[in-house]
Specification:
Layout: H1 2-15, E1 39-44, H2 46-53, E2 79-86, E3 89-109, E4 120-144, E5 147-169, H3 176-181, E6 187-193, E7 203-219, E8 222-237, E9 241-248, E10 257-264, E11 268-276, E12 283-287
Antiparallel strand pairs: 1-2, 1-12, 2-3, 3-4, 4-5, 5-6, 5-7, 6-9, 7-8, 8-11, 8-12, 9-10
Amino acid sequence: MKKNLFFVAALFAGSVAFAQTTEIKDANDLVVTPQAGDWGLGFNANPLFNYVGNMFNGSTANSFNSAFVNQTPNSSNAIYGKYFKDENTAYRGSIRLMTMSGTSNVQIDTNTAVGSSPEYITDSYKQSGSNIVIGAGIEKRRGHNRLQGYYGGEVLITLGGTQPKSTNTYELALDSANLANGYVTNNRVLSSKGNTTTGLGTSFGFGLRGFIGAEYFFAPKISVAAEYGWGLSLTRTGGNEVITETYGVKDGATSPSVYETTTTTGKSSSFGIDTDNLGGAIRLMFHF
């Protein structure tokens, strides 16, 4: 732990040795680097680079839209904003708002007679969820010409879960006749709050992060940047609630029937300290 703290302190302390940034102009007398009062807007450029890099390989991994779906919620897929107090200081923020919903249908042939036409019934499974990641911090900048180094700190807050709610609809009733024919099982999930696989519900996370990075301005007020960070995080996750429909003999009963059972799991929490590079993200930034 002490070695990690010493490493980060030395890293940030060494960064102050950079020369202060100065106004840089290109051959057309256009200012290249940000000035006091400028705003910056950026995003993770990895999906764009992947798309361009795969344009000539047929149909392998070159769908632009596919790069933005089925992503694990994290700050590397956020939209970034900056406000430059002066050429060497910027206030920065980030936000990611992710929602997902989907329905999958399963068809079952209930006509098992040989040579007869199929008779399908349909079961539906609906899932929905959301995830919010918000960050705010401050960065200091140093460097020469088009290449600049920066460092600073930020706070990150996350709220949500990738699969916090699901609802299942079954066309066939859960009864003795359908059980005997093998069309249904005697135990099936009606709904759940939280992930039925992990047993975890909606979570809340808080993190403090120090960072250091480099940014190159390849055109006036347009840059690519990569950064490396170290920080701590605290996450609290809510319990899971699953409602199950069962056909059987309930406690105290003398004959089978259909009844519902609600099962809940406890809350959990975690704490961690680690380094990161935001999943290898390369930011594309525009300044105005």
